[in-house]
Structures
1.
Amino acid sequence: MSFTAKVLFDYTAVEDTELSVSKDAIVVVEEVNDSGWCLARLGTAAGWIPLDYVEKITAASAPSAAQPAAPANSTTVDEVNDAMKHLVMASSSAAPADPNAKKCHACGGVLETSFVLAKDYYFHTDHFKCKGCGENLSGKPFVEKDGEFYCEEDYYNSFNPRCGHCNEIIKGEYITALNKSWHPDHFVCAVCSKPFEGSQFRKHDDKPYCDEHYAELFKVECATCGKNIVGQVFEALGKKYHLDCFVCAEGNHQIGHNGSFNVHEGKIYCPQHFEEAVLNRCAGCKQLIKGPFIKILNTHFHPDCWKCKECNGPISTNNVAEHQSNFYCKPCHAKVSAGAGSAPASAASAASASSASAPAPAAAITTPKPTDTDVELKAKAALAKIQAEKEAKAKAEEEAKSKPKAPVSTEVFEVDYSLLSDPSKCPSTVDSAKKEMYLSAAQFKEKFKMDLKAFQALPAWRQKKIKMDLKLF
C-alpha cells in the first residue's frame, strides 16, 4: 500500500535504479523491501531511496498527490509543511495516548516523529543500530537474525564459519568435512592441492589427502601378506593387518575384528585351535585340561581322573604305587606285583649255583628305577599343590562375595615389575599368563595407566596387546 512521505535528508542517487531527492520534498512511497529501501515517486521520476530518509505523512494532513498545482499567489509548499507539522504536534499533545501507536523495537518508546521500518520492526532513526558494533544502520545494508539486526561484517563474523584452508570467513556455499568448513575450491589434497575425485579422500591428523599421496606418506604394510593396507587397518600384538589377513595359525580362518584369540610362541590361534594345539590332554579321560591338573612322570591328569589302573578307584596321596609306568592303589599294586610272579625255586637255585661257580663280573654302573616311595612323594607333592590352589581360590571367592566391587587377585603375594618383565628374573611360582595380577595396586596403575577393574573391562585382544607392550605376556 502506497503512502505520502516527507524527505528528511538530501540523497544523491548512486545507481540508475535510485532516485535523487532533496530535504523536505514530498514523495509517494509505492513499495518497501526487506533491506530497508523504498520505491519513491517524485513527479514523473521514480527510484529507490533509504526508507529511513523519509517520514510518513498521515492521509488527513497530507496534500493529495492528485491535487492540481497551487496558483502562484497561494501558500508555498514549505509553508504548508510547516502548518501540517504544527497541526500534528498540536493534535498529538491534546489527544490522549493511542494504545495502537507504533513503538520503537529497541527502546519501546512511542514513535512520534520519523522512524525506520525494517523487517516489520519499527525504530527511532537513531536507535536502528548494529547488534555487534553499534553503528547506525540507516541507509546501510543489514541482516536480521532472531529479531536482532547486524551490519554484514558483524553478521558474518558472528555466525558464518571460517575456511579450514585459508581461515577466511565463508560468505557463500561451503563444504563440511573433518569437523571443519571449507570454501568449495579450498577443500583439496594437502600435498598436491588437487580437488578430490568423487568427493572421496583420506585423512591424517585432520588433513585431507588424495589416495596417491596418502599411500605414499603413510604407507602401512600388512604383517601377514606384506602388502600396503588401504582402508580399514586391524592392529594386534603391536602389528597391523588387513582384516582378512588376521587369521588363525591352525585353521587359517579369519578371526574377525571382535573375535577373541590366543598367542602361543608368536602364533595367533582362535580359542578352539589354541586348546587343541597347546593345551594338555588328560591321560585318563583324554579330554583337554583347562584347569588344575596333576603331572606325574610327564603324564597329565585331571585330579579326578587319576585312578587305579586295576580297580579304577581314586588314588590318594597315601594310597599310590607305580608298576610298569601305570599307577595303582596299594592293594591292587600288591596283587599286580604278586601276579607278575617270581622265579621258581629250582631255577633260582640253579641260577645261584651258576653264579657261585662263575667268576665275579666287573662292577657295572646301573641306574636305579624309581621306587614306590619316590612316586608316592611326587604324587603327594602334586596333590598338595592342587589342594593349596583350591584353598586359595576358595578364599578369593569368599573375599569377592564380601567385597563384590573390589577387584580380587588370585595371588597372595606381590612381585616388582622389574622382575615380572624379565623372564630370567621372574619367580617360577608366577603364573606367566597372569603376570599383571602380581603387581601392587600402585605399580599396576603406574604401568597400565588405569586400575585393575578398568583393565579387566577391556576386550581380551586389547588386554593382550597392552600386556605385550609392557612385556608381561
Note: The first helix runs from residue 77 to 94.
2.
Amino acid sequence: MITSRQRLGLLWLLTGICMALIGGCSRPSPDTLRFGLQTMPVTLDPRYATDAVSSRIDRLLYQRLVDFDSHFQVVPSLATWKELTPKHYQFHLKQGNHRFHDGAPVTAADVKATLESVLDAAMASPLRASLAHITRIETPDADTIDFYIDAPDPLFPGKLDIGILPADLIRRDHPFNRKPVGSGPFAFVGWPSEDRLRIKRLADGQVIEFDEVPNPTVRVLKLLRGEIDMLQNDLPFELVKYLQHHAGIRVQRAMGTNFTYLGFNLHDPVVGRLAVRRAIAHALDRSTIAKYVFAGSARTANAILPPSHWAGDPDLKPYDYNPDKARALLAGAGFDADHPARITYKTSSDPFRVRLATIIQSQLDKVGFDVDIRSYDWGTFYGDIKSGRFQMYSLSWVGIKTPDILRIAFYSTSVPPNGANRGRFRNAAVDRLIDAAESTADTRVEAADYRKVQRILLDRLPYVPLWYEDHMYAARSDITGYTVAEDGNYDGLINVHRVNSPGH
C-alpha cells in the first residue's frame, strides 16, 4: 500500500514532469476564472438533471419559484405563495426585472409550460414523480400561477424547486441540454469542446469556465500551475492535506449532507436477497473508513435525510460492524468458501472512488464475498445505473432538501423513467406511508410517517447507507469571495473574483 509520504513524493515527481512537459504553455486569460471539474454536466436542462454537476450548474443558469434556507425550509425565490385551500396554492411572481437571457420577460406562462412539460409522460422527466399530485395549472394573469393538487400537501411549494424555461422555446423543442436559456445570475456562453463549458456572470460580465480534468492529481497540478483557478471536492484527502500546506492555495471545508450509499438490483439472485444485503451492512467498517480514509471529513449515515433534517430520524440504529454476523448471514443464505456470493460492483473511474471501492471490496472479501470491481468513465457508469444495468454500485445523492426524495427513490411506481427507483424496490407499507405523509396537513404527522419509512428502508436495505461527505474547496490565493454551501452547490461563483481584477 502506498503511504501518505510516498504519495506526496509521487506528487512532487509528477509536478516536475508536468512542469517540464508544459513549461512552454501559456496560462489562461486573467479575464476568465477557471473551475476544475472531475466530470462535465450530463445535461443543462433542469427538467432532466439528476447528477450533481448538472444540478449545481443549472442552479446558476435558471431561476426557480422557490429555494431552501440552511434549515431545509422552503423560501421564496422567483415567487411568493399562499395556500388558498389545502389543495389550491397560488403563486405570484415577485416584482423585478426578471428576464430570460434572450431578453424575454419571465411570466406565469413560462412557469406553466415548464412544469407541464415535466408532467408530460412523453418527456420522461425523472422529476415527474415529485409533481404527480398536480391536477391542473392555471394562469389568470401574467404574474399569477394557480396550482391544484389531488390531496393536501403542506410541502407542495418545496417541490417546485425546478428551473424555469421560456415557454416559446419549449414549444419549439429547443435543445436546452446543450444550449440553455434561463433567467439565472449566469448566462450560457458556449461549450467549445466536450471538456470545456463557459458561462458569464450577468452582474459584471465575469466569465467562468468549467474544465473537465478527470484525474485528481492532474487537477491539483493544474491548480498549482495556474491553469485552473479553483476546484471543489473529488480529491483524495492526501491531496487535500497537501494543498492545505501550500502557500499559494486557500482551502475551505464545510460539513456536508450529501449521502453516499451502496445500491442494489433487487431482482438479482444474489444481492436481491435480504440476508446478503444485511451481511454487506455488517461487513463494512464505515466508522474506520470515515476516520482514516476521509481523515474525519465524513459522518456515518443511516438514511438519506440527515438527523438534523426536520423529517430525519436521529434514533435510527445503525448496523454494527460485525464480521462474524456477516459470515453467519451468508452461511444461512447458502454461501460458503466453495460457493461464495459473487458480486459485480460498479463505480466511476475517479481514483478516489476506485480506492473506496477497493476498501469495500477488501472488507466484503474477508467475510466470504467474491467482489469484482468494474470502474467506468462517468457517462458510461451513470448511464448503466439509470438503465438498471448493475448488480451493486455506489453513488451519492446530493442537495437533498425535501423528503419527497423518498417517493422519487423508493416508491414502487418510481422506476425509471418515472423516477429514480433504480433498484426496483417495492414495499406496500412504504408506499402507504409516503401517500399518508403527502396527504396530511399536519407536519408533525407527516414527519412521523417519513421516519417510519426510513426505519423500514434501514430494515429492508434497498440501499446500504455509508456516510455524509464534507465539502472541500481549494483556490489560488488571488481568488476570493467563494463560500462553500452545505449541499455542495456552486452558488459561491456568484461572488467569487480575482483580487487584482479591475474593480476589486
Note: The domain at 31-44+181-255+473-498 is CATH 3.40.190.10 (D-Maltodextrin-Binding Protein; domain 2).
